[in-house]
Sequence to fold (392 residues):
Amino acid sequence: MPKKTIADVDVRGRKVLIRVDFNVPQDDEGRITDDRRIGMSLATIRSVLDRGGSAILMSHLGRPDGAPDPLYSLAPVAQRLSELLSRPVAFATDTVGPSAQAEVARLKPGDVLLLENVRFNPGEKKGEENYAKTLASFGDVYCNDAFGTCHRKDGSMYAVPLAMAGKPRVVGLLVEKEIKYLSDVVSQPQRPFLAIVGGAKVSDKINVIDNLLKNCDQVLIGGAMAYTFSLARGGRVGNSKVEPDKVDLARSLLDKGEGKLILPLDDHCGDRFAADCEKRVVPAGQIPDGFMGLDIGPATAQHYAQMIHAAKTVVWNGPMGVFEMPPFDAGTRAVAQAIADSQAISIIGGGDSAAAIAQLGFEDKVTHVSTGGGASLEMLEGKNFPAVDILD
Fold:
């Protein structure tokens, strides 16, 4: 069901409580090493400020155990957000306590306030009623722009909007975009519709593959999960990373996806997990003893690239091999390059695929890069998100 967005709400003179995802990586000195998630929130925040509203921002950072921990403070994020917005950002040293209440009372139209890490309060993970009601009292409008946690029912994601019944409850511009591509486009794609699924474990992607097989024209398999499929077909996998207990599962997917599920033609393998190992390219399913598969082979990379070029919609989730370690990054590079060069609507489903696209400098050459790892996987699985379902 389509959702109202922040652009549909008159925010003039109103305080907008925005759940953002500022769970950004930091170094040992607390310096932010990648601010993309902060940057992704700017459109929604500016939409509120430019139309005369004030913004109260809530986020988690890391996994503190329901208590304050300086290591996970959002204070450095407030500083970086101020630089990106080119305006002051007030910071509350708690979430629902005296500092937050005083800062909220001071807000004027055009002001921005970031509350301290919501996970410093035990009420966040438990969805406690009093905690949620206090947070809800801060805002006249609720906005969910934290796609990375949309699959969770944490307090600020679910209990707070529930407590704001009767007030506008909408999605932000980032969540709107994620839903558009990961749900709407995938359910009604331009064809041919091609999915590329990689990564280590069949068990991690079983529901994604199952759901995509219902609607895709073809699903290309790569990464270590390919070796479990190879085992299911009676192939030799040497010392490759496999899931012996998932062979029957892989076999059932092969039966279900007959003609649609495409496995590698060849494997790039090594005698140990190292860049300077002895390397061989062998036909798929013929990895010799003492060797392990570490990437799709060149014939597979070329075959997959040709299929990508013929597609009108492409979804990619999971690397084709050990993309952090040359030369076993070649398969992932080839797939990324083919997607970047194609004319297809291209959707990169978060996690390692998003990291690979960014690392290779192709972010501006694809249609959409998801900001959510687990959330994008669950949306590709076709799951409902209660935190989104309750919004207007």
